[in-house]
Amino acid sequence: MSKGKGIYRSRDRKIAGVCGGIAQYFDFDVTLVRLIYALATVTTAFSGVLVYLIAWLVVPSEEFTLDKPE
């Protein structure tokens, strides 16, 4: 059973993979997503930290699968 398209925490992670997962879902550059997140966090009195922690708990982690060569 394959997983549907959804937001998953990425294995390309600096902390928990939340920004990487968002970047994969929307097909954005992960560095751009991290910069936007950092800017939004600083300009909103660091409320982005709380949002990130909640996303870390709620968003499932991307599962590691070994693809079989065809």
From TrEMBL:
Cell membrane found in the keyword field: yes
Q: Does the keyword Kinase apply?
A: no
Give the record's membrane topology: Single-pass membrane protein
Q: Write out the annotated subcellular location.
A: Cell membrane
- InterPro entries per the UniProt record, alphabetical: Phageshock_PspC_N (IPR007168), PspC (IPR052027)
> A single GO CC term, please?
plasma membrane
Q: What's the protein name?
A: Phage shock protein C (PspC) family protein
The residues covered by the Phage shock protein PspC N-terminal domain are 5-62
**Which keywords belong to this entry?**
Cell membrane, Membrane, Transmembrane, Transmembrane helix
Q: Where are the transmembrane segments?
A: 35-59
Cross-referenced PANTHER family, in alphabetical order?
A: PHAGE SHOCK PROTEIN C
